[in-house]
Amino acid sequence: MVNFRSVGSLAYRMECGVMRKTIFKKLEAQGLIANYNRLRKNLPPKLPDRVYVWDGTLREGVETPTVFLTYVERVKLAKLLDEAGVSIINVGFPALSEEEKNAVKRIANEGFQQASIAASARATKSDVEACLDCGIKEIPIFTPFNGLNLQYRLKMSREQVLKNTIECIEYAKRHGVIVDFVLEDASRTPLQDILQIFEAAVRAGADRLVIADTVGFLRPLSMRYLVSHVRDGLQQSLGKVPPLSVHCHNDFGLATANTLAAVEEGVAYVQTCVAGFGERAGVAPLEEVVAALEILYDIDTGVDMKKLYRLAQQAEKSFALPIQFHKPVVGENAFAYEVEEHVEGMLAHPLLYEPFPPEMVEREPQLYISRSGGRQLVQKRLEAAGIKAMPWQIDEIVRRIRSLQESMDKGGAQMIFYQIKRLMRELRKGITEEEFWQIVEQVTRQKPKIPAPPLKVKEP
User: Fold this and answer.
1) What pLDDT, in 10s, does the model give residues 206-263?
2) CA torsion through residues 171, 56, 279, 210, sign
3) Residue 386, domain extent
4) Which residues pair with 248 in a beta bridge?
5) At what angle do helices 98-108 and 125-133 cross, to 10 degrees?
6) Are 181 and 253 in a shared domain?
């Protein structure tokens, strides 16, 4: 198929760049479209006027299996996030290792224009100290509090977790930092337990509270229920509601929807990662959340949408992981069209098939000539180039294009595709079982005495 870029009315394209979101209001005023998002009954009363984006690409995103970023790559991504207008950037987990601690310390001293630089800590004094040693001014302190985690992970009582949480928050606050309390697996924690530990965290000095949907278990309606009951419960017990945040995983493909559902209940701090990178199925993608808030909700995020595509490209390069072609907003096919009826519509008026003008995110439409059509697209391209062609000549051009496409070796293309997949698996395989046990034997001088489950270790 043949790909043509930047097709469409130049005047329209320039207009989109200037009008941005108002282009939809203009079409609605002209009676050309209906916008149900703007109906008063569809606007939740708790919607905040401003939403602040808290990005965890350098903390959560790098938990993508086999991903490793160099210091230069981390700084470049952090700087791009700052330039884009992200409000909070979590740059790492200092207590993880001395190498990580040094990297976080260096990044914190790089100098950022807009964003608050944060680093994570468990609810232990040593973790908080590691963050303080890095000169970090904002610390998300995290812990779970449901029975599953207490019994099988922390192996602690509720009283012990509450005591540790309070002590760590108070210790951090004595050092003058902003503290975000992150309740892991909040989406599977009984409401009374959520309120108990949230109230303790606020009384200890926590500045923000984070509801984490750690395994992506909630539906949007369930998220609204949880946020509203947490908000109302805190209001009743504390007489105030501190700023709330959500951290949504994408295991059921609902991370963006759940994040937006939380915003509809008044949450003003949303956590994201560029392109949705992260552990397992990833987390709420920065570009999806920002585009939806800015365009569908008309809420200011402070993020420059024109920087989203460049950010995604940089993350893709640094992570050495391709972004799927059909990924919303930043995928290669997000503004690509091949069906002849759609291409003809795009030539008549791009918003017939564009969800929003791609210029808003520094993209261009891509129109393809398919095997089953393309005559009008060829004709338009020739006219735009000042070429006068007879109808039979246009037919001949289309015929030759189709002939080239039909002569393609499909088997050869599939072979290349499978070779690329194999190379990607090789790139991501980590170390082998044999290599793992060789290292164990070299260090311990022992061989395994019982069968052990397979383990994949990512390489730096």
Assistant:
1) 999 999 999 999 999 999 999 999 999 999 999 999 999 999 999 999 999 999 999 9
2) positive
3) 2-32+335-390
4) 213
5) 50
6) yes
